[in-house]
Amino acid sequence: MTTTADQLSEIRTGLFIDGEIVAAQDALHVVDPADGGSVVGYAAAATAAQAADAVAAADRAFPAWAALDPAERAERIAAALAPLEADRPATAEVLTRENGKIRMESVIDSIVFEHRCRLAVDLAGEVDAGYDLAAPPKRTRVRHRPLGVVTIIVPFNWPLAILGASLAYALMAGNTVVVKPPPTAPLAAARTVALVARSLPPGVLNVITGQDAEIGQTLVGDRRVRKVCFTGSVAGGKRIMAMAAGNLTRVALELGGNDPAIVLPDADLGPDAMRALFGGTFDTTGQVCMAVKRLYVHRSRYAEVIDGLAGLLSATTLGHGLNDAVTMGPLHRPQQKAFVEDLLAEARACGAEVREFGAPADGADLSRGNFLRPSLVLDPPDDLRVVTEEQFGPTLPILPFDDVDDAVTRANDTWAGLTSSVWTADLDHAAALAARLHSGYTFVNAHGAAHLDERAPFGGVKHSGMGREMGIEGIREFQDTHAVGF
Hints:
2 domains, 7-stranded mixed β-sheet
């Protein structure tokens, strides 16, 4: 099915505080990035006082929610997820219009949110698990207990999937939550969270949309907030840490990446592998924190990798994400388009070859939105910004190497440490190399969110953040450890 933005009506979302939809005097105007002008809808712009109301509601709801047995919390969360499937087509349509990505990705975003929440629910039996130290001279019991109010701040690119990595884990641990969707794409997240929150006790789950400058300090700096989970840029993470410092509020930060992939001489570069490498780089127009940002290829396979990616990129069709013929939408913001264009201009000026690919869909006017043709930057100097900085757009520098140790050194020579990947037929060699790469998660013969084992913890090192999401570690992130000595 193909739907144009012109055929759709504007969407309006309110705040959700203490079990009720709450209006706001002002609204965020959400604009379609495919044309840069059409208003998709309006999200309530909360005041600082309304943000404080949400924190207060969560604080009031905390004792009763924390007192429930984890199995009962699991039952209530699972029941609250029930309406999501029927609402998924409408949610995906809204998300594509406000975010810019293709409809299929928006559907997956909603599916992953529910899937991750159900993975958290499945951990009910481990939430309260502890251990005893029975040896003399003391007998000590070690257990876990919830923190209190948690604020979760999500970004625009995969707002539902990213929220799913923390929301149900915080709730399962016994905490209450205030969710803040991104101001440039708040509609689908606000809609989804409110849909879930209606089935939970009032105050357990709240949604606040608005401008960061108006409500950010309250949602992070209020003394009743015990933890803040933030996914976004490194600069944003530093601001969150500074705001949280006054109350020594805990933070979990999943920040930017400059993720390397290393292709060894024996790598399988057949069609499936090339599609995995392509998707791990260019999904969501390259706007994924864990996307491949630097591709190091052994010189013996260099031309083969370039040809394989070029073949896939040549089939790219650009346009509005609601057009089912489109395979790549626009960048989310004009500022990001300008940033990537600047990186490519610098690369050309330094003598690097830049190859661009793709064509507009029938009837698509790419001049009206934040569109960029996907590109490959071939053999740029290691100190060029397209290599050292996170592009967060549809471009990829490809760098040849002759020595594996040199490739590992170059891959680790960065501020970031979110994910990495190794491509080789020798799995023992892959494991040995993975142990040398400075990242929180390493893929083997794959890369990107589609290949995550979501039962495992996920998070970054260095400036890519701190803390872990998902798995039992994702539960423990929202708990205190308590010891009792007898």
